[in-house]
Write a structure and sequence with these properties.
heterotrimer, A alpha/beta, B alpha/beta, C alpha/beta, B: alpha/beta, Rossmann fold, 9 strands, about 35% helix, C: alpha/beta, Pyruvate-ferredoxin Oxidoreductase, domain 3, seven-stranded mixed β-sheet, about 25% strand, globular
């Protein structure tokens, strides 16, 4: 039986993580996501499910605690906001290199630097193209509602373990801070040690006589072996690109134009679609749910029936580059966005569509 | 490779006087001949063998000369980012409280880049063992100055000797963590003589026993030599260590909460 | 039915909790809702505002340019949001502390002397519920039985003893709301 609640996105994520059977959360406070750890602490998770919640001395320590926990085959997660996620990049690179499952939430705020605490989508490149050093990818899920903040905690763990890959949930301050209705899944049991040994035989659980020792490392001083490892990683990412693309379309069937937007911007665009319809403009929306893998084919197919695409992002234009790659110049693609923590209004979006795509 | 005597009349079980613990792998150590790391590895693995806790032990390797410790220790291991081993160990122990967890770290790893992780894991009193090998230099990267490099001591980044006025003072981090309420047992040992090895092994055993009894964090510094980095023969380096390192880093227990 | 509301005033006036009770009541009545606050330093001692949307349909943008109703509790918020009311929409304000009254001619304007009343009754804690009562009198977007359930859900258990007081304040507010200008 699912349970109905009214919750902030940050709280819904935290509650859903508990219910997904998480074993450990390691974090460091930063606005606008501190509710995640506050909520978990208030829940007394160690009594409720046995889940460990620890406030680390830094974001760097927190992600490395995630690294240690993930190495044990445990369901572990961390959350932060943009400047904190920058600090975590070293650890994320190690986790990706060592092929470990874990969940990372970024409730994005405007940058660069300390920037602002207001919502932004300016971490798209960092999230989808690597972020830390080396050739690696995260699976990136972009929630656009409080419900998805909850749903993606469970889905994130599922994908992370399926591919032995870190999953990043790329949210923003608006979705983290707003309250909406959310249906919560029933409590999943945490893994037992027997299940960990069975399901993740690579995990460091202690060397028993029946197996070789398990080593978690991202290091190989032999370049040929390291090249093989890199090729294996890339092969995995290609499979993820084939299997895991998720997106949603609104009003796209016979639309003349299209918005492409994720997260909060996609919500703004839904309102903009209504406003545009009132002015006789037929515009649809394609909302990528996975940012990596990016729904390239879906974007390419859209070029056969729309006259132009406006990519709406709370950034100076990041995802627009992936849209341009996918459309190969076949239709006009423009970017519209506000930066520095400002959320574009639905009216601004309609005006941008008229000016940059229809009139342009 | 050394030539081993394989005369079957001599190689007999009853003639065995010393045997490498099975918890060290067959892999030849990558450390320089004369280095103390090998001995430190051995005593830890002997303790784990004697306590029969191989199947319950998870070790965390650092970045530094012992980055490949997992190649030699026949236990489950994780290789941490530079300085972060105590963070990994914290999570492992919290998530697997019944396991034995230790980190093995050098001076650059533990006392420079990982200072925050060291201090805070000690201060939280994580129920783990930290083994800290202090040889006063960055061995792996080719002999650069470490946080524990002595005043006046030459390294590739202090080629005219460590000038404390501009380069700071050597950090006695072991004394520092002994101040924290979370540490239960803090000691400084060495492995340059048989008697020192016996003492160091006793300390390692005590640290793991402490963990078994959930007493808190045990911290063992092992002052060691780096003949390559110090540009000496192994024998010279041991003498230099006794004459120069030990006065600054005196051996012995710094904190033993049981005795207090 | 979709009602798009902005509630704005000083931090400490109970702006966010008024919005939360309204939103939770909407959930109890099986409506779609969203509650989008301003947050951060703005909230600490300065102005606070929250956008609440209650609808029979899936809610698109939780962030809006224009509102069906603006509930305004200080001068800064009047300056910021008077022009965000949709033509023909509703503006409710407490004149206490207002130095420049609304000037729009194309909207319905009501006042509610909630601060004064709360002070007289010694009910400063439920000031925001008096205001909510005034709004619900004009726009009963959620039924009172669901407001009761909303209060139960959004107030911590230790404050459940105060629910009757809150409900009384809502009733008080219903009697306090006064029309200033009607355009439809």
């Amino acid at each position: 039986m699912k349970e109905l609640r009214l919750m902030k996105g940050n709280e819904a994520f935290a509650e859903a993580a508990i219910r997904a059977g998480a074993d450990g959360y390691f974090g460091y406070p930063i606005t606008p996501q501190s509710e995640v750890m506050e909520y978990l602490m208030a829940q007394k998770t160690s009594e409720r499910t046995g889940m460990i919640v620890l406030q680390a001395e830094s974001e760097i320590a927190a992600i490395n605690m995630v690294y240690g926990g993930a190495s044990c085959g445990k369901r572990v997660l961390t959350s932060s906001s943009s400047p904190g996620i920058s600090l975590k990049q070293e650890g994320i690179s190690y986790i990706a290199g060592a092929e470990l499952p874990c969940l990372i939430l970024n409730v994005v705020r405007g940058g660069p630097g300390l920037g602002t605490i207001q919502p932004s989508q300016s971490d798209y490149f960092q999230s989808t193209k690597g972020g830390g050093h080396g050739d690696y990818r995260l699976i990136v899920l972009a929630p656009s509602s409080v419900q998805e903040m909850a749903d993606f905690a469970g889905l994130g763990f599922e994908l992370a373990f399926k591919y032995r890959n870190p999953v990043l949930i790329l949210s923003d301050g608006a979705i983290g801070q707003m309250m909406e209705k959310v249906w919560l899944d029933v409590q999943k049991p945490r893994f037992t040690e027997e299940e960990i040994i069975k399901n993740t035989p690579w995990a460091t659980t202690g060397k028993t006589p029946d197996r070789e020792r398990n080593i978690i490392t991202s290091l190989d001083l032999d370049s040929l072996k390291m090249e093989q490892h890199n090729r294996a990683l890339q092969a995995k990412y290609r499979i993820i690109e084939q299997e895991e693309i998720r997106y949603e379309k609104f009003n796209c069937e016979d639309a003349d134009y299209a918005f492409i937007a994720y997260g909060t911007s996609a919500r703004i665009c839904q309102k903009a679609i209504q406003l545009a319809a009132g002015q006789g403009i037929n515009v649809g929306l394609m909302r990528p749910i996975t940012l990596f893998p990016f729904p390239k084919k879906v974007v390419a197919e859209m070029t056969s029936h729309v006259k132009g695409i406006l990519v709406v992002e709370m950034s100076a234009g990041q995802m627009v580059e992936d849209v341009q790659l996918a459309t190969q110049g076949r239709v006009k693609v423009e970017h519209f966005g506000r930066v520095g923590g400002i959320i574009p209004s639905p009216i601004e979006v309609v005006e941008a569509l008229k000016k940059q795509i229809i009139g342009g | 490779m050394a030539e081993f005597n394989t005369n079957p009349e001599i190689v007999q079980q009853e003639n065995l006087v010393y045997k490498r613990t099975d918890l060290l792998t067959e892999k030849a150590l990558s450390y320089c001949p004369g280095c103390g790391h090998g001995t430190a590895h051995r005593i830890i693995m002997e303790v784990i063998e004697e306590m029969e806790i191989q199947s319950k032990t998870i070790g965390i390797a650092p970045v530094g000369c012992s980055v490949l410790a997992y190649e030699f220790m026949n236990i489950d291991m994780q290789q941490a980012a530079h300085g972060r081993a105590p963070a990994l160990a914290t999570a492992v122990k919290r998530l697997f409280p019944e396991k034995f967890v230790f980190t093995y770290q050098g001076d650059g790893d533990l006392a420079a880049i990982g200072t925050a992780e060291t201090i805070h894991s000690c201060n939280r009193g994580e129920n783990i063992v930290i083994i800290f090998i202090n040889n006063g230099i960055y061995g792996m990267t080719g002999g650069q100055m470490a946080p524990t490099t002595l005043p006046g001591m030459k390294s590739s980044t202090s080629p005219y000797g460590r000038d404390v006025a501009t380069m700071g003072n050597p950090l006695r981090i072991t004394e520092l963590v002994a101040q924290l309420p979370g540490t239960i047992f803090v000691t400084r040992q060495a492995v340059h003589t048989p008697s020192a090895v016996r003492k160091a092994k006793k300390a390692v055993r005590k640290a793991f026993e402490n963990q078994k009894l959930n007493k808190g964090l045990s911290f063992i510094e092992i002052v060691s030599n780096c003949n390559s980095g110090w540009k000496m023969t192994p024998l010279q380096s041991n003498e230099w260590m006794v004459d120069n390192m030990f006065p600054y880093y005196p051996l012995g227990d710094i904190k033993d909460s049981e005795k207090a | 039915m979709t009602e798009e509301i902005i509630i704005a005033g000083f931090g400490g006036q109970g702006v966010l909790s008024m919005g939360k009770i309204l939103a939770y009541s909407g959930v109890m009545q099986d409506k779609e809702v969203s509650w989008m606050p301003s947050y951060g330093p703005e909230m600490r001692g300065g102005t606070a505002n929250v956008t609440v949307i209650i609808s029979d349909e899936r809610i698109s943008s939780p962030i809006l340019n224009a509102f069906d109703t603006a509930i305004i509790l200080n001068q800064q918020s009047m300056d910021k949001f008077e022009n965000s009311v949709k033509p023909g929409g509703l503006l409710i304000y407490d004149p206490n502390g207002i130095t420049r009254h609304p000037e729009r001619k194309d909207i319905n304007i009501y006042t509610i002397e909630a601060a004064e009343k709360a002070g007289k009754l010694g009910l400063s804690k439920v000031f925001n519920m008096i205001v909510l009562g005034g709004f619900l009198k004009l726009k009963p977007v959620v039924g009172m039985e669901f407001i009761h359930k909303g209060l139960e859900k959004s107030l911590p258990l230790r404050h459940h003893g105060m629910i009757p007081e809150n409900e009384k304040a809502i009733e008080t507010g219903k009697g306090l709301i006064t029309a200033v200008q009607l355009v439809n």
